[in-house]
Amino acid sequence: MRILKLIGAAAALMVLASAAAQAAPGFSTANVNLRTGPDIDFPAIDVIPEGDDVEIMGCLDDESWCEVLWDGDRGWVFSEYLAFDGPGGYVSLLDVGPAAYHVPFVTFAARSYWDRYYVGRPWYSERARWYAHHVRPRRDWHRPPSGRRNAGWWRKNYRAPSGLRPPPHHGWKRPSREIRQEARRHRRNARQEYRQDRRDDRRDRRDNRRDDRRDDRRDHRHDRH
């Protein structure tokens, strides 16, 4: 039995190592939502700031969405807002295709994905709804051409998702490291304040319940006399 457990653990480590080896370093080209699934209906985890580093874990086979790892969170973003560092500037993921940077094609199953990455998160309590959710293809999305592709092929008749500006063109400059670090500090402080507010709120509710129970006991004793 112990040998079987060791074999299972080794296999799990091999899977994790393989997934890590396939991840490609990239970055966002705009402030874009990180979602819990490849559909705009799925809850947003956070907003990835423009220019922030991500690990691109994989993309759907139509390249409409890609899975990324960002700031410890794993989720899905619109593929056209992802890019790689390249000679003379940035390289849009869609211009060259995921395979050019060894990014694999992946699939999505809400149940296994949420159970693996989101247990204990605020939205996990609504998991039954999302397990049953039918993931819709992106509206007005065109599959990439087969074979060699021309840079910017996807911009023809392209319509940016609601609430987002179109991805930048080639002249765009990635925000400096200092600006990205400052944004990261601001985000970290905001998260800490949010967590502290939640702790304070839970403490206040607990104190209120305790006071209510004490008042109920006092009223009960008063009624008996």
UniProtKB/TrEMBL annotation:
Keyword terms of this UniProt record: Signal
Secretion signal span: 1-23
Top-level taxon in the UniProt lineage: Bacteria
Span of domain SH3b: 31-82
Annotated segments matching region Disordered: 160-225
Biased composition (Basic and acidic residues): 190-218
InterPro entries the UniProt entry points to: SH3-like_bac-type
Name of the molecule in the record: Uncharacterized conserved protein YraI
Organism annotation: Filomicrobium insigne
